[in-house]
């Protein structure tokens, strides 16, 4: 790949998890690859050296908080970049981990989404500033957990999602659905843009603490249903919703999600229910690409590279 090296190019670094996504972004804008030397010591400690000269440069770090190791790699790299004299720094986080631990439900519970934000807020600020860009957060309020001089932005993937939904549609009058009423507003907004009817399921909590679907909000009989959920973790709630729409008469069902976490046996569970035709997902989480490679007939990945590149080219 031939790249024009200019002073106004942004240097693009990434954590190991997002190396492939960073490579996809390189030809999409004024980016220059940043080089790192990494190795692990026998005792499990990690060594990192920034080999590309960074003093006075505008720099992008593509990283996530998927695991604790990913989070610390992000933190170490960001601190090293600032200490090395970067002019301005963008931290792009395709997937923000612990997004479901955004509030305490029981006494003593640690709000991990907030403690992670506090950690990242302590990254030193270069002379011309630092901006943390988070993609399709599970809860919007997480962006407000950052403190001090940290500047945050919530980047929505609406256009990408609409294209993913359209790619799955087999007819013009499909129903866009959600897994529960909590996503109803977002699904209704997407449905309005698509010119289709929205639907969601009603749930009730049982004495055991579990939940069950009690009703479907819209007529889905003999229609294609495309379910949107921002994140698939274990797949349990999604399978429950799929079964409800099928019982309500849906002709066929596909799924669109932003973050394909696919924890544990989620893929086996989703395939095993026998009711989902296809799942479209972005590459915001590395598990999505792994799952798609193993299930190419079932899971389809849409890249976020152009979305992030377009934002950074305008910044």
Instruction: Tell me roughly what share of residues is in helical segments.
Output: 25-40%
Number of helices: 9
Give the name of the CATH architecture of the largest domain.
3-Layer(aba) Sandwich
Low-confidence stretches: 1-5
Largest sheet: 6 strands, parallel
According to DSSP, the number of beta strands is 16
What is the CA-atom radius of gyration, in angstroms?
21 Å
Provide the number of structural domains: 2
String of helices and strands: EHEEEEHEHEEHEHEEEEHEHEHEH
CATH class of the largest domain: Alpha Beta
State mean pLDDT (0 to 100 scale): 91
Shape: elongated
Description:
- The protein is of the alpha/beta class and 315 residues long.
- The chain has two domains: 10-155, Rossmann fold (3-Layer(aba) Sandwich), CATH 3.40.50; 158-302, 3-Layer(aba) Sandwich (Rossmann fold).
- Helix content is 30%, strand content 28%.
- The strands form four sheets. Strands 2-1-5-6-7-8 form a six-stranded parallel beta sheet, sandwiched between helices.
- Helix 1 (19-25) packs across helix 9 (305-314).
- It is elongated and about 60 Å long.
């Amino acid at each position: 790949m031939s790249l024009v090296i200019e002073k106004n190019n942004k240097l693009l670094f990434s954590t190991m998890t997002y190396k492939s996504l960073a490579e996809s972004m390189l030809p999409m804008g004024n980016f220059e690859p940043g080089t790192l030397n990494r190795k692990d010591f026998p005792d499990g400690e990690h060594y990192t050296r920034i080999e590309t000269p960074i003093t006075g440069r505008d720099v992008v770090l593509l990283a996530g908080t998927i695991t604790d190791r990913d989070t610390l790699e992000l933190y170490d790299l960001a601190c090293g970049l600032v200490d090395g004299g970067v002019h301005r720094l963008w931290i792009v986080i395709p997937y923000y981990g612990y997004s479901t631990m955004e509030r305490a439900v029981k006494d003593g519970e640690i709000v991990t989404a907030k403690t992670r934000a506090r950690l990242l807020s302590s990254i030193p600020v270069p002379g011309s500033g630092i901006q943390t860009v988070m993609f399709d957060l599970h809860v919007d309020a997480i962006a407000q957990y950052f403190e001090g001089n940290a500047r945050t932005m919530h980047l929505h993937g609406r256009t990408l999602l609409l294209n993913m939904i359209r790619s799955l549609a087999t007819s013009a009058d499909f129903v866009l659905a959600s897994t529960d009423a909590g996503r109803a507003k977002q699904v209704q907004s997407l449905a309005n843009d698509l010119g289709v009817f929205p639907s969601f399921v009603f749930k009730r909590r049982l004495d055991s603490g579990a939940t069950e679907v009690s009703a479907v909000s819209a007529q889905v009989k003999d229609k294609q249903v495309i379910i949107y959920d921002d994140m698939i973790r274990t797949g349990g709630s999604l399978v429950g919703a799929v079964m409800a729409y099928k019982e309500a008469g849906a002709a066929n069902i596909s799924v669109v999600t932003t973050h394909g976490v696919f924890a544990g046996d989620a893929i086996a569970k989703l395939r095993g229910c026998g009711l989902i035709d296809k799942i479209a997902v972005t590459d915001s989480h590395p598990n999505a690409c792994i799952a798609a490679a193993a299930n190419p007939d079932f899971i389809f990945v849409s890249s976020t590279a152009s979305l992030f590149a377009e934002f950074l080219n305008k910044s």
